[in-house]
Amino acid sequence: MTRPELLRVEGITKAYPGVVANSDVTFSIGEGEIHALLGENGAGKSTMVKMIYGLVRPDSGQMTLRGAAYTPSKPAEARRLGVAMVFQHFSLFEALNVAENVALGMENPPPMRELAARIRAVSEEYGLPLDPSRMVGDLSAGERQRVEIIRCLLQDPKLLIMDEPTSVLTPQEVEILFKTLRQLSSEGTAILYISHKLEEIKSLCDEATILRRGKVVATCTPRERTAREMAELMVGATLKTPERRVGAKGEVALGVSDLSVASPIPFGTSLKGISFTVAKGEVLGIAGVAGNGQDELLLALSGELKASPDKVRVAGHAVGDLGPVERRRTGLVAAPEDRYGHAAAPDMSLVENAFLTAGVRKGLTKNGFVDWAGTRKFAEEIIAAYDVRTPGPDVAARALSGGNLQKFLMGRELMQGASVIVINQPTWGVDAAAAAQIRQSILDRAGEGAAVVVISQDLDELLEVSDSFAVLNEGRLTKPRPTEGLTMDEIGLMMGGAHGMEVAHHVA
Amino acid sequence: MGASPHTPGIFVDRKWGVVVLRLEKRPTPSKFWLYATPPVAVILTMIAGGCLFAAMGKNPFEVIRTIFWDPVFGEFAFYLRGQLLVKAGPLILIAIGLALGFRAGIWNIGAEGQYIMGAIFGAAVGLAVFPTENRLIFPVMVVAGAFGGWLWAMIPAILKTKFNTNEILVSLMLVYVAETILAKASTGFLKNPEGMGFPGSRNFSSYPAAANPELIAGSGLHWGGVAALVTGVLAYILLTRHQAGFQIRLAGQAPRAARFHGVSPARLVVMCMGISGALAGMAGLFEVTGPAGQISIDFNTGYGFTAIIVAFLGRLNPLGIVLAGFLMALTYVGGEMASTNLGLPDAAIQVFQGMLLFFLLAVDVLTNYRFRLAVGAH
To answer: Could you tell me the fold of the domain covering B59-343?
Structure first.
């Protein structure tokens, strides 16, 4: 099937100080084609689409849109020419309603009443139900994404760029999004779909361009390839699946009972009656769409949020009212999701960041004085064991790529010999090879008898590492179930289905 | 919208397009500019200050020489060098305390008030036991001075931790309260009973047990100078080697990471405000028992405010602050010379000191950012 060419990208190169983000990238997208841009983190996908959307200018190379030279100098120009983009991180104002948010993104917004009617019309046409008068702060992540999509669709784009759109969706919501995208495609709107989730790309995309280290390494038709083949093209190496040890479960190491805490985050989700236990050697996977209380659960377990003593027990000791230092002393370590500013201090060196959490358990203080020599040694051990690419332990954390810093931070928690390990998003933004290594280390620690809680939005990851599985939904945790034998449908229902979207596609 | 790391700067039109000078965040802070910033700022201040003085009809080279050269190497250097130490001592002592708080993101702007309260508390203890002679009196007065400053700093600290008030405003406003109490002290409860009705307390120079004399004649060194240098070393060790210093730095750079580490924000506020208040209070006590000699309505000369500049000029690093304290003392002593010898108004000297902070903060951008020329890009 040949389609008339919509966008052609030819020989695009873009360098930043110290790194070539894109080198001689060439590909083309036909009218109405769903084209995947596939690659690991840091492969140059984001830079590429930023250039197409006019946020960044290429150093060399050219782009043509329907045969005409295409050099957008700003996003507004790209939008005028029919290119729209839905970002991975939404730019919405939580204290405004849907219509107001949409109006803010428009050059000449129509009167509110008219805009609301248009939002309704578009949302019904594409099966994306959305009430224009609702506050964005009250919407789920999936609903917020719909705001962004509808904002784009109101411009009637020829090319819609979607950056990692499914990372915030339940499986059911993903299916509905895909229906919308297929409908758009059949009406002639091309979609540039950025992802590293191979199964999605196989089911959705017509063509794929695979980037590795800024270069195009392959183009293929995803339906004709296996996920593994594409993964290996993406990574440039053969992949190892983590090995699961089968160990007998020990006694309960972490017990949480009826834990309710108010969220300290504005528009956050309070925890409501969370109860679960994790035994020695067990990995509990906690799934859920972002913003359903994951950050709050991590804070409540790390000790940054306190509760009454017996709500959280580590090896039988009540620790609910203890802070992070005392909890580490009893054997609980935690790894928050946000690397820059929460799990690590970006401007501090890796040595200082090693001390940040490891001081207590590694005995790195004497009479209140820091044993910097010992801390440096520990930092070097982490760097060696987790293959952290860095010139040395004295560089600032922010100088490391996201994936490398994540490896360092995972190593920091996993190498402390803790009896309970809580991790939020262990492999977020990490390349496939490093992700596999991190998952293997998690399983190894469990094999050595640690109780592990993994909070993640990556279902494949959870199914790979966890023994039992629960879902966090609007601050409530479902009863943990054995992972073995769970189907995607069951998981989707545990995740609360599709947030009121069941009827959306009855006509589609 | 995706945040761009590039901030457009100056645009220059050329026939073939646009040259954009833009600021780009460095991957790691520049060590070079970290140390080069203060000297560059001093040079820029000299240039801009020179222009200012020239515009006022003075010979800029003569003014700059009077401020920066004469106090150290000029005709009266034997006297003025001592004055440097007299001025630098309290500036350093206060600035070190402030820097600890600033490092943690706690903005104590009211050191001047804590300085005054320290002086009043310490002096009151000494005057209460007048004319007893005992070697313990002066040390007890130092402790009382530190306590007075600490107590005054605890007001904004506790209001901040309990009611989330802004410590900048509260500490600043308390300066004016302290000044009122000082006026009351010198005309009322600490007034010299043998002072023939003049305002002001007894003079400590005539009360040896409570006095803070020059330790080496002509050097300008008194116990305050000793305390400043010792505090500089101790604060340096605290920041680089001690866990509390790590927590201070961490809280300032990444507050959420600090909570994750296990720092209690409230305890940190109380600790940092307390240390800076106590040091400012000590500085006040050393001043009132030494160079000032007595509690008087206007014995305070704004050290508490100038110390803020000193803290930043010294890169919030205790050792840097020691150097910065001397530099700032130089502008004080030299500035006084310039105003008496060359007829320069006091305000011009204050503008000059302000310029120093301005250029310091401006040049400081280069520590974390660099300029890049880009053609046509946007």
So the answer is: ABC transporter involved in vitamin B12 uptake, BtuC (1.10.3470)
